[in-house]
Amino acid sequence: MKRKIIMIDENKCNGCSLCTDACHEGAIEMINGKAILVKDEYCDGLGDCLPACPTDAIKIIEREAADYDEETVKIRMEERKKAKQSKSDSIGCSGADAQVVQLKYLIEKKNWRIKK
Description:
Elements: E1 2-8, H1 18-22, E2 28-31, E3 34-37, E4 58-64, H2 70-91, H3 95-109
Antiparallel strand pairs: 1-4, 2-3
């Protein structure tokens, strides 16, 4: 079926990954430092990722593509959410906690001083 879908120009992609956060369907992943549309079925073709791209590497085109599959996307996003939660649970501290630990290290071991 011919429909609207994103196209990513790998030559323009700088690997910032802002588009992966902007894509609510999880259709874009970073692979070898470049944004890649991983599956046509995941892309709804609405282009929420376009404004996030600082290099204009993403365009909406019309081409033959598999239909957008909302149910598959819901399952995929739930799996990604579980995997992310599992990963953060295994780390042992939140990002804020890690920053506090790093700051304490810098103060104690590197004799950093905090200016007031």
